[in-house]
Amino acid sequence: MPDSIPESTLPYPPVHTDKKFVILSDWDGTITTFDSNDYMTDNLGFGKDKRREGNLEILAGRVTFRDAFREMLESVVASGHTFEECKQVLHDNIKLDPGFKDFYTWCKTPDIPVIIVSSGMAPLIRAVLSNLLGEEASNEIEIIANDVNVQPDGKWEIKFRHPTSGFGHDKSRAILPYRNLPNPPILFFFGDGVSDISAAKHADLLFVKSKPGGDNDLAAYCKREGIRHVLFEDFQEALPLVKSIVEGKKTIEQVVADSSSK
């Protein structure tokens, strides 16, 4: 590997090379009930209205996710909130999807790895995950995410995993290497928003979290691009669908067809 190429810009090597199934999931708004970066922006930064304007600009292709996301987080820092303060705010306010704990517990029985692939920042994710799921599970779950640079005065900025990519963190780079394995696994991906666009086309089955009464940018993108997907409200609803495929009771095509008919 040439020394001039940062490791973080390369495809993430597949860790689970002998598994039949691998689950990759977005963190914010998917495993949690609310996106932590949205929460910070809405409550500590420039607010929800401007954030939604940025999301719509991303969907329209007029700005990159990386640049809109950086602007969101910069608004939080500009308002005087330190990284430690933000970590505490998220610790106190972000909740776990009500079905995720049972979903994760089931995945351990058939030995299906669960990998968090996030456009958020790993230190924040780890802190909230350990609070919500416990220290042991937090240490077990692999997290592929961006990082953060924190200054001595408490000011901070996101450190993108793929800074030259318009995604900031191109989630496809955590998925595509599994395709090159001699016996590639079936890949499930769970997501909910514009940060998951880079992953949407590359899973064997994409689960899109629905948000009744809210915005569903990933579903809108999938419909526009013709990407097959299954809507789910929480992991309690997703669990029997994944189980049916893992246990050979249904094919992916049958699960997608059943979901489309609802």
Detailed description of the structure:
- By secondary structure, the chain is α/β, with parallel strands linked by helices.
- The protein has one domain (about 15-260): Rossmann fold, CATH 3.40.50.
- The protein is about 45% helix and about 15% strand.
- It contains twelve helices and seven strands.
- The protein has a seven-stranded mixed beta sheet, with helices on both faces.
- β3 (about 140-150) and β4 form a beta hairpin.
- α1 crosses α3, α2 (about 50-60) packs antiparallel against α3 and α5 (about 100-110) packs parallel to α11 (about 235-245).
- It is globular.
- Residues about 1-5 have low confidence and may be disordered.
Based on DSSP secondary structure assignment, what is the total number of beta strands?
Answer: 7
- Give me the strand/helix succession: EHHHHHEHHEEHEHEHEHH
* Helix percent band: 40-55%
Would you identify the regions where 5 or more consecutive residues have pLDDT less than 50?
1-7
- End-to-end Cα distance, whole Å, is 49 Å
Q: In CATH, what is the homologous superfamily?
A: HAD superfamily/HAD-like
- The secondary-structure class comes to alpha/beta
Summed up, the domain count is 1
Helix segment tally: 12
Radius of gyration, in Å, reads: 18 Å
In CATH, the topology is named: Rossmann fold
Largest sheet: 7 strands, mixed
**Beta-strand percentage range:** 15-25%
Mean pLDDT: 90
- Globally, the shape reads globular
Determine and state the CATH class. Alpha Beta
- The neighbouring-strand order within the major sheet is 4-3-2-1-5-6-7
Q: Assembly state here?
A: single chain
CATH architectural category = 3-Layer(aba) Sandwich
